Amino acid sequence: MCRKFVYGVAVSDYNFIGRSQETKRLLNDFRGGINVILMSPRRLGKTSLVKHVCGRLEPDDSILTVYLDIFGCKSEYDFYNRLASEVLKQTASQRSMWLEEARDFLYRLTPRISFSPEPNSDFAISLGITPKTHTPEEVLGMVEKIAVRKGKRIVVCIDEFQQIGEMADSKQVQARLRSVWQHQQHVSYCLFGSKHHLMGSIFLHHSMPFYQFGDLIALDKIPTAEWVEYIVSHFADGKRTISTALAEEICRFTDNYSAYVQQLSWLVYTQKEEGERVDEADIKQASEDLLATNEVLFMQMVEPLSGYQLNFLRAICAGVTKNFTLSEVREKYHLGSYSNVNRLKTALLERDLIEKEGEELKITDPVFHKWFQRRMMV
């Protein structure tokens, strides 16, 4: 049975919406061996899009895709172990052959395998790659060797790539990666992550190794018209009715952020039984539920903030979007000195709590914005 609305995980097929132009562009890049950098704020569906495109590649494309999430990688060699193990697992001719193929491409391995007790579940590999056993170049070059041996091209899709920017000696790590990757003829890379500001610092600055590494795609929000069609049809599939106007209200409340549209739609959907029609009270109640459901997360976001940082967010919620250094703004919202304002802005940008939109600043997460206005304005 199809789930009507899905959030918190990558979506596909029935629950994947729109992105026709982005899908076409990514498919062309993957088939053409072009590196891709995919950027957007959180909750706009980057992972879903990449997995959707990987699923659209046909066997005659002669392309193998590898997906890995490196959020848990805290060091350079954490990354190398994750990269090597996932490439070997996902390109092995048979599940039972991964170790044999691993030994073909990487010597001096001391692998450990762990299996979940759940039937048909995946297995985890630890290859034991360390600075004493393998150089970065050996590990990074393995992917090209596999592609050549198999007579195929490989696209390596790396989620949460901003972790590279948080490692010790990050710039040197990035330089090592690019120095190998830019010379590979049979492998391309799709790099994306959830921390928009940190991704920007890696890919948008002239002085950084990954500047102009590939096709930079800024993922925008899905238009309201596409969301409305999706919401109305999914309610109808569940024998429930929602008007176009109320579907638009879901989009307005969530500012078209994909994960929130799905979550709020689900909260509305679960209030109704088959044959029933959604009304304005249902939208209002579900919107309150959405704020309540995310409150623990939002509290975790504000707990580490200083009083000055909270005041900066309060100023934005009150309608101030620029000129924060003006004396009247600093005094009214208790932002401290002129130099303190710049420190506050930098700190909040680095946390991805705010973002630049032209010359103005805005709170990144639209639902957090609404929650903050209700709970933190004093």
Can you describe this structure?
With 378 residues, the chain is an alpha/beta fold. The chain has helices at residues 20-32, 46-56, 76-91, 98-105, 136-150, 170-181, 196-203, 224-237, 244-254, 258-269, 280-293, 295-302, 307-317, 327-332, 338-350, 366-375; strands at 36-39, 63-69, 112-115, 123-126, 153-159, 187-192, 215-218, 354-357, 360-363. The strands form 3 sheets. A 5-stranded parallel β-sheet has the order 2-5-6-1-7, with helices on both faces. Strands 3-4 form a two-stranded antiparallel sheet. It has a two-stranded antiparallel ribbon with strand order 8-9. α1 (20-32) packs across α2 (46-56). The longest helix has 16 residues, at 76-91. The chain is globular.
